[in-house]
Each structure stands twice: as structure tokens, then as C-alpha cells.
Amino acid sequence: MRCIGFDPGLRKTGWGIIDIYSSKISHVANGVCASSGKDLPSRLVSLYEQLEEILAKYHPDSAAVEQTFVNKDAAGTLKLGQARAVSLLVPARAGLSVAEYAPNTVKKIVVGVGHAAKEQVEHMVKLQLPGVKISGSDASDALGIAICHAHHIRFEGKLEKAIEKAIG
């Protein structure tokens, strides 16, 4: 299975793609989409077109997007939410299932600590994907989101099956 992770942002949206083989993961590609345009609509169109190209090139089977955290600047949070909507829309239009993960969940899965620093996430991503050349902190975060999704996919449904077996 091939998974793409997105770390959405209005100026820069990180993306990272991994292949998942049973309990193993391998790096496929990563990068950062930098939006262009003078106003919000043109920046969103720019991100949309770039993300569409990436999906067309790499053909992922599923997608994962980091959830928005609310910060002190309400206007900034709303703009981030609009960029995040693009990151949800593009894979959904391509027919992919799209999972969403809170930043602390991603950090907990990748690093083992829910309040890890960006540098810790990048370090652990590099350990889990040996030899990877990361295109920046946004791409590192996106790879972390993809790794988090891989972890959830591996264990999806196993608890329910174990409970059914125990009851059954």
C-alpha cells in the first residue's frame, strides 16, 4: 500500500509518500509545495494544482492529513484551515480514503512523546526511513504523518477481531 501524508500550510504544504509492506515501510518521495499568487484564492489554486500533480505522479492508495491546531491568531487559523481543506479535497477527489491525525498523535507514534520538538520528529523519521533526503521540516512532518497512518493501518481492525475471538 502506498500512503501520502500532508502537513498543510498556506505558504508551504509538506508532503511525504511511503510504501507499506506488512510491518515494513519504505520512503518513496517527499517535498514541499510552495503556494504562489497575490491573494488567497490564487494561493489555494496553486496548492491544489501542485497536490494534484503529485497524486497523478505517485498514485497513492490512501492519504493522511494533520489536523489543524488552533493558535492565538484566529485569522491565521482560518487561513490554515483553508489550506488544510485543499489537502483533504485533492485525495478525496482522487477517490482515496483520507485519515486525519492530531499533531500530538503523530508525535506520540513517531517519537514516543506527544509534545516532541520538530527536530525530534525529523530525527525519528530519518531513523525509520534510512537514507532519506528530506526536503525540509514541512516534508519531515508530512512523512511523520504518513508513518503515523501506516501504524494505524497495521493495527486497524485487530482489536475488534481479538475481542470477537475472545467472545466467540
Describe it for me?
The chain has 168 residues and is of the alpha/beta class. 52% of the residues lie in helices and 22% in strands. The protein contains six helices and five strands; from the N terminus they run E-E-E-H-E-H-E-H-H-H-H. The chain has a five-stranded mixed beta sheet with strand order 3-2-1-4-5.
Features of the shown structure:
168 residues; alpha/beta; five-stranded mixed beta sheet; 5 strands; 52% helix; 22% strand; globular
Instruction: Please describe the biggest sheet, giving its number of strands, its sense, and whether it closes into a barrel.
Output: 5 strands, mixed
| Span of the ends, CA to CA | 31 Å
Helix content: 40-55%
Radius of gyration: 16 Å
Number of strands: 5
Give average pLDDT, whole number: 91
Shape: globular
Order of helices and strands: EEEHEHEHHHH
Strand order, main sheet: write it out.
3-2-1-4-5
- Portion of residues in beta strands equals 15-25%
Structural class: alpha/beta
- The number of helical segments is 6
Which residue ranges are poorly predicted, with pLDDT under 50 across at least 5 consecutive positions? Answer: none
**Quaternary arrangement of the chains shown?**
single chain
Brief sketch in words of this structure:
This protein has 168 residues and is an alpha/beta fold. It is 52% helix and 22% strand.
SSE layout:
Layout: E1 2-7, E2 12-21, E3 24-34, H1 40-58, E4 62-66, H2 74-93, E5 97-101, H3 103-110, H4 118-128, H5 137-155, H6 158-167
Parallel strand pairs: 1-4, 4-5
Antiparallel strand pairs: 1-2, 2-3
